[in-house]
Structures
1.
Amino acid sequence: MSPLSTPKAVIFDWDNTLIDTFPILYRALNATLLEFGLEAWPFEKVKQSTHHSLKDSFPILFGQNALKARDYFYYTYRVEKEGKLFPLPGAEDLLKLFASNGLYMAVVSNKVGDELRSEAEYLGWSSYFTHIIGSLDCPQDKPSAVCVDVALSGHEESNLFRQDVWFVGDSLADYSCAVNSGCKPILVDKIEAQINDPYWLFDGCQELLAYCKNLIIK
């Protein structure tokens, strides 16, 4: 892993990159599968299969019931997350460090945009990000580069060199989105896939925070 230089912008994934929602997603998805007559998935399958947007994945899973399943999933998800929405270790301090050093930040997630922004507001994090981009906000969702283009549209450098941008995430969709958009892939979890382009791996936001303190702190 070659040394990183200070970025000019940082794009974050949301779920299980900055906040701990996997147990909530696990329960909500399995409740939805059972409601529509399908078998529940084991923990690992859910972990490996929930990185694409519902817009893209639910028609494959639920066919003509995709919209009903989506509504049921989000109803269950909101019930499950009540009082259980917490930052991952080091996440808030990482955002504070970047903000105090004037770094441009945005979120690109495959969670539906309105839900995503309500969670950022709940955590008091909205002000950290110039753009919070979720599913249905752009013509295509992650891993398309389109959502990254929108996320960076508020940067003062209109022709920002993409290798000066970090894309921080935990999944193959995040890695692929970084590669597709020309950003540096910064992973905070190992992914079970064969990948060929360079990437940087950290053990969660806590380790990335420690690295960044040495890199950019003033």
Note: The chain has a mean pLDDT of 91.
2.
Amino acid sequence: LGQAKEIYHTFLKRYPYSNYTPEVIYKYAQILRKEGRWEEAKAYLRQVTNDYPQSLFATFARKLLAEDEFYFCVQVGSFLNYDNAYNLAVKIKKAGYPAYIKKVEYRGQLYYRVRIGKYPDRESVEEVFKQLVKKGFHGLIYP
């Protein structure tokens, strides 16, 4: 992430009016999200929507801002079948974690993603992730 972030930052300084600027701003905001720099990420996403409202990346930015998912979580499963997601969520809750199911449409398919928590910083989510692994669960940290 560090190298990409530096490249995007340099690009924005050197070519502020390029046709690629909306995409670079959006991708820079995504890196900031992955670093947990929520307010900065929101500012860059708003910049895309305000300065390039007709761009494809403004559409993506509006969606991210509307979803308001500026936190870390652990995704422990993604299913096409709701019952499978529900069963895993129950198992995770019994293990003492705040599991929930998020419906996501991706490439025309509806997925039920089982997630844990809404953590403000990377350290908190990594601690929970380590505990989950010790208990035999698998997952990914998002965003």
Note: The chain has six helices and four strands.
3.
Amino acid sequence: LEYLLLGLVSTVPSFLMPMLVVGKVDSSICWMDRYWVKASLWIIIFSYVGNYFWTHYFFTVLGASYTFPSWKMNNVPHTTFLLTHVCFLFYHVTSNITLRRLQHFVADLPENIQWAIKAAWILVLAYFIAYLETLAISNFPYYEFVDRASMYKVGSLFYAIYFIVSFPMFLR
């Protein structure tokens, strides 16, 4: 129950804050058309698919498992669905900020060079975030790996594929 509460305490502000603190531009827009609503909806769908379907790769191939007592959906604790929303929202906002800065920085370069630089940045950022999350969760006492070295290298690489697809889509 404690981890479910942690998930709620972490996730609820990402919905409440934009509703309560509305900027000038958003105040004239219908709530369904606001960026935060679309971004949150994308992250909800994206994190649900990742938790429900993709985690089985980590469970079966890399031998990862959650061991804390919890309500589960497809062998994934409900808490992780909530915490994934917050983490993915942070990762994608970070990718948007860095990609927009990068677009501004390379704007005067030929288009094919711009594309190559942005693609390289997405690859590096995706792997970096996936690796850091894998490293961070390795200290969580209720998450176990059979082979940590494989999880750090191979698991992070496969996890990064998810971000390689989603970062450009979220930027749009």
Note: The helical segments are 2-20, 24-27, 35-60, 78-105, 111-137, 148-171.
